[in-house]
Amino acid sequence: xxxxxxxxxxxxxxxxxxILSSMFVxxxxxxxQVTVEIVSTEAxxxxxxxxxxxxxxxxxxxxxxxxxxxxxxxxxxxxxxYTATLIPLEDTxxxxxxxxxxxxxxxxxDQEAYAIxxxxxxxATGNWMPDDPPRPRALEIYNDAYGRNxxxxxxxxxxxxxxxxxxxGSSQVxxxxxxxxxxxPRKNVKILFYTDLGTLSSNVGFTDDNGEVKVExxxxxxxxxxxxxxxxxxxxxxxxxxxxQNLIPIGCPIEASTLIAVGKITFVIPEVPLGTATVTVLSLxxxxxxxxxxxxx
Length: 297
Hints:
Low-confidence stretches: 7-28, 252-297
Structural class: alpha+beta
Radius of gyration: 21 Å
Largest sheet: 6 strands, antiparallel
Shape: elongated
Mean pLDDT: 75
Number of helices: 4
Helix content: 10-25%
Number of strands: 17
Strand content: 35-45%
């Protein structure tokens, strides 16, 4: 029942994302000069003698976003307006980790936003700020992101096999595979798995050197098992303010952020005299939808 609820919620979220993306048009693209207004602090906390550690509300050409800072020793000021260049972060291990953090962590509380900002600073500058050693949650986020990667727009996620035969009460191995637009495997990317019938050996895994994650589906009851594999894909962009504090806006531009989903492999488990079950793929498709993380209004 819990898995079924998760799968239903996943499909509803995907529909909502598709609707949202069709309504929202990004006002800027990479390399553009944009106007950035620093509106207010969002989540985090003030540290005496240091400054704000957390997320900040900004306007980019009049559109609201939430951002985290890249440096800790450069300053911007609430109420000020700056001119910035919007550029994607360079593809480095550190920036892959930052993109992973922004793909999988939500700074919905002061404590979480604080920890996210500290982990980003560590990857961006090599230093733990404002406290060394860091708070446990910041270290936890940093360690989780170490060596990780994210999918990019144009990547393809598939789930196999196309067909198989299993006995009721036994298991079926499923393989999710992520490749880039050139067909090259994408390594160290987090994949989530859902089913509305049966039990999966794991609900999360990371792609290996071949871009693959394997899980087993155990199912010993009649019915249809809809299995889904998904990953969040957000490659971070930077607002370059020159000699000021550079920023990482979440969800800007919209083209940088995607939700990649594979759905669905459908296992039909009928009642048969010899106790065998036919595994049939009714539909298998890769669906890419835009995902925005705009400021709550």
